[in-house]
Amino acid sequence: MSVFIEVEHVTTYRYAKPVEFSRHKVMFRPRAAHDIRVLRARLEVSPLARQHWVHDVFSNSVALVELLEPAQELRFDARFTIEHFGVRNLELPVDPEAQNYPFDYSADDRIDLAPFLPPQYPKDAPGVSDWVKQFMPARGVIQTRDILRNISEGIRGDFAYASREAMGTQRPAETLSLRSGTCRDFALLMIESARGLGLAARFVSGYLYDPSLDGPPPVEVGSGLQQGVRQSESFDAEVDTRGAGATHAWLHVYLPGAGWVPFDPTNTLFGGTDLIRVAYTRTPEQAAPISGGWTGSASDYLGMTVSVSVRRIDAEQAAAEAEDPAGEP
């Protein structure tokens, strides 16, 4: 049974005096496929701007925004409505040769998966490998999917979730040392764990729907971005436990037969209708929802606020949205 979800994501940058802006990249439009249908999507920008849409190297939909005048406030108001059908990913059949670990990808698959196989932090690999050993059997075989589920559940159970406003993602070694992190930190740790096992993994950004958050207005949060000419919005200016009601991050692992299977180690979700993907990339840094720059003194930057609302709507509301495609890129 499908569900209809509406997302509103507003980001505002403020400055002490009018500053000039370079081109900004915005990623908010969900990746449509057999499990997600985009009914409506729009992006409103202030001050006056010109925008056009492209597909990046990963085929994510990216809005390139040219700001046409200086301003003291830069505001991105992104909204979309989707129909989410969900997929029972843990029930998808894995090819017989890949059901048990270890296995080898086919020669063709290895060529296509090459960008998603090498660890991003090879110096952290020994520590990650030692940590992963606890999820491997002392003897005998283990199903590939069970290893990944064990790793996901291990992160969920043994690591503390700690919202962080600062940009960037912790190195896997740092997450292992602190035993805490954000959704993007947990996603990266599991990506590096999977890649260390020879499995292809990619970073996924998007939104998390939580039924318990239906109804209340969006919550506005600040972000302590570094002052200077570059600015971006990180994945998890989270305003609720474990990433709900905000931008979110998880990962995909490629299993022959089942394809790219989602794993959310922050919440031990494996698909369904709660994960709303927007982009997938090789590294977390490539999936920032907003990135760009401005020209002025570092002291001109006053800060950023983010407001995110993810709520379920009924079919009648969704139909009304689909009939009014204004702003559809």
From TrEMBL:
Pfam families: Bact_transglu_N, Transglut_core. GO terms for biological process: proteolysis. Residues 175-267 form the Transglutaminase-like domain. GO terms for molecular function: peptidase activity. Signal peptide: none annotated. SUPFAM superfamilies: Cysteine proteinases. Transmembrane segments: none annotated. Keywords: Hydrolase, Protease. It comes from the Bacteria. This is Transglutaminase-like enzyme, putative cysteine protease.
